[in-house]
Amino acid sequence: MVSSKDDSSTDSDNSSGDVPDSKPSVYTEGEKVLAYHGPRIYEAKVQKAELRKNEWRYFVHYLGWNKNWDEWVGTDRLMKHTEDNVLKQQALDKKQGMEKNTKSGRSAQAKPKSSADVKLDKEDTKSNVPKGKKRKADSGTEKGNVSAEKLVKIQIPSTLKKQLVDDWEFITQQNKLVKLPRSPTVDDILTKYLEYRSKKDGMMTDSVGEILNGIRCYFDKALPVILLYKKERQQYHEAVSDNVSPSSVYGAEHLLRLFVKLPELLAYVKIEEETLIRLQQKLLDFLKFLQKNQGTFFLSAYDGPKAPEGSGKDKES
Q1: What is the CATH number of the domain that holds 208?
Q2: C-alpha closest to that of 108 among 56, 38, 11, 53
Q3: Does Secreted show up as a keyword for this record (predicted)?
Q4: What whole-number distance in Å separates Cα of residue 48 and Cα of residue 315?
Q5: pLDDT tens-digit series, residues 142-198
Q6: Is 142 within the bounds of a domain?
Q7: What does DSSP say about strands 40-52 and 32-37: parallel, antiparallel, or unpaired?
Q8: Residue 45 bridge partners (DSSP)
Q9: Which of 85, 151, 159, 227 has the fewest CB atoms within 10 Å, i.e. the most exposed one?
């Protein structure tokens, strides 16, 4: 398929480049469709349709989700929004719930609330996981509302939300990348926050240190799986070797993406409600720290693409 990492093979017949130029697009702009994302099916709307290398590509918006997660997909990822296909969506969703009923997550069809803004997952799954495969952080119970209750509410400050939108714009629309390694790195930022908290509180609390270690651990494990856009994957493989931690290479731009995904990740962990509330407060405090240092932690502009597949406008490598 278009994505270099997309090995989807189940329905890839019509993506083999056989689509004749004269054949009209299967889907039209503005059409409501069903779109595969990993092992789930979501309602989506076709924003644009383009014929690239004899293959139709569709820019879709997932209904109920932030436009940050709009993406280009192939015909193999889409289905017509028919009654039969909706039933297929529901059956698949129920199956996922039964297979992973020990975890708590949202149903694909049940109100994709932005409180689960976790669809960072989406960007990755589409390029990494063929639609029939199961993913560890995916899934959940059949009851979307159950997971919604368990989701930690993390209110991202408005200026950081804009940062996320700009981040998406640079990479997916302008075909640019964050120059690596970043300075300060995620490790540097976590250390700076620990120093900041210690001075403010007059001591170093174990709980803050634990939370920062948790953030680092989540970041290192989540980055290659759910925090990268497809266009960033080659850069990741070039910048991070087996014995290098992503937190020592990436910076605030990618760390902020983790906080979009964090509510759903934490929903999979058994945490007492009181502890959850304290955790939520500390995470919000950390986000305020990021916001306070936004000018120094975040890039105001990204570099041209490293991969030759893009339009290497600003930099060739």
Answers
A1: 1.10.274.30
A2: 38
A3: no
A4: 28
A5: 334 334 445 667 889 999 999 999 999 999 999 999 999 999 999 999 999 988 888
A6: no
A7: antiparallel
A8: 32, 61
A9: 159
